[in-house]
Every structure is written in structure tokens, then in C-alpha cells.
């Protein structure tokens, strides 16, 4: 499998943007503090990620698919914690 420069840039972007959700997941899990998390924002974000995932599937773009699957899982975890831990 040969990667182009565009593929490499896409993979780096995918890793960085997906990894950006991990600190929020870890912090929320440890503290159970969901007061600073906007339910509406994360619902809209999840819908956007589903659209990007569909787009990646239609294009058969592995970096787009992989990044959005992982990001959707992380966002879903945050949403579940928001619903479970809110007072």
C-alpha cells in the first residue's frame, strides 16, 4: 500500500483531531463533572460526525472512516457520561 502526501496529511489530521477528545473523556470519567459540557453541542457534533462517516464510506476513504468511527465512539462516551452524571 502506497501513501501519498495527501494521505499522510489526512492521517495526521485524523489522529490529531480524534485524539483531541481523549482528554475530555478522561477528565469527565475521573471527575464525573459534566457541568461544563454542552449536551446540545455534543449532539450536533455527533450528527456531524455521522455525516462525515457516511461521506468517508461513500468515498471509501479509509482515513476519514477510521477517524470518524473513533471520534464518534469518544463523543458517544462523553454524551453517555453527560446524561448519566448530570444532577
Automatic annotation (TrEMBL):
It is a multi-pass membrane protein. GO terms for cellular component: membrane. InterPro entries: PQ-loop_rpt, SemiSWEET. Its main location: membrane. The keyword Transmembrane applies. Gene3D superfamilies: 1.20.1280.290. GO terms for molecular function: sugar transmembrane transporter activity. It comes from the Bacteria. This is MtN3 and saliva related transmembrane protein. Pfam families: PQ-loop. Keywords: Membrane, Transmembrane, Transmembrane helix. It is found in: Membrane.
